[in-house]
Amino acid sequence: MTDSRARRRFLMQSISIVGGLLLAGCDRLSNSRWFTRMLAVAESLNAAVKKGTATRLSMAQEFSASDLSPSFRSNGTSRPSSAEYDRLAAGEFADYRLQVGGLVATPLSLSLDEIRALPSRTQITRHDCVEGWSAIGKWKGARLSALLQKAQPTSAAKYVVFRCADSLDASGSPYYESIDMDDAYHEQTLLAYELNDAVLPIENGAPLRLRVERQLGYKMAKYVMRIDLVDRLDDIGDGQGGYWEDQGYQWYAGI
Ligand SMILES: Nc1nc2c(c(=O)[nH]1)N[C@H]1C(S)=C(S)[C@@H](COP(=O)(O)O)O[C@H]1N2
Ligand SMILES: [Mo]
Asked: Which of 7, 30, 240, 244 lies most in the core, judged by the most C-beta atoms within 10 Å?
């Protein structure tokens, strides 16, 4: 991500330099060979930028109701084992609050009702797990972009970190994940509270789980308790941006 950001910034700067020359409207320049060559370079840079941008904005494939898997299996944690989670689940998550903090102008503490009141999206997508299974499910959730609009990330924010209620290892450190701002504002990136037209089951991440549809299953953090906007990932966990990333998996798990 950092690389593609840097590349894009470099390309944009190159283009605006050439653009500036063009705007100067210097006729003598158009006859010079170096200028013609530079235009050709700008053209190919421009194509590269368009291609890169299109890739970042592209939508994950969506399916129809007839494609739905008969059931959506659970993987990894099927229920966080903490007294606090038990308490929240016993009250059907009425006391649950999603904390949003870090590099934001307005930290938030939102109830599920407040999250359900945010602009939402419903989508039928295929979930691919690296362990070799896929399932097509229908998700409804708040758009992460709507939540960010409320929280107002500062200009320093580069990543969104999701901290979960469960832990997969003996050390007890919580499952966590992170995505960049391109994915955070993507139309299909949701904080899902419904699966297949029913309240999100505990085994699939109740009360709230991330959907970031152009990436693999392990990015889709379940049991999200806290969201932080940050400018770096190397000081969280083992520094690789997520629980499975810390074990060697790719941070950008694009498919
Ligand atoms: N908090 C948390 N999120 C998680 C996991 C987990 O164990 N804990 N497993 C991940 C993996 S590897 C996959 S494939 C999906 C599984 O989602 P599901 O249980 O709804 O099938 O959740 C991902 N998110
Ligand atoms: Mo997975």
From this structure: 244
Q: State the pTM of this model.
A: 0.82
pLDDT tens, position by position, 9-23: 443 343 333 333 333
How far does residue 127's CA lie from ligand 2's centre (Å)?
Answer: 9
Is residue 208 domain-resident?
Answer: yes
Q: Which listed ligand is nearest to 127 at the C-alpha?
A: 1
45-63 pLDDT, tens per residue?
Answer: 454 455 455 566 799 999 9
Dihedral in degrees, nearest 10, Cα atoms 141, 195, 79, 228: -20
CATH, residue 37: 3.90.420.10
Confirm or reject: Cβ of 176 under 6 Å from ligand 1. Answer: no
Domains in the chain: how many in total?
Answer: 1
Q: Give the tokens for residue 22.
A: 């063009």
Domain ranges, residue 13: 3-246
From 73, 75, 77, 133, mutation site for ligand 1 pocket: most ligand atoms within 8 A of C-beta: 75
> What tokens appear for 58 in the block?
């592209």
Specify the DSSP class assigned to residue 248: T
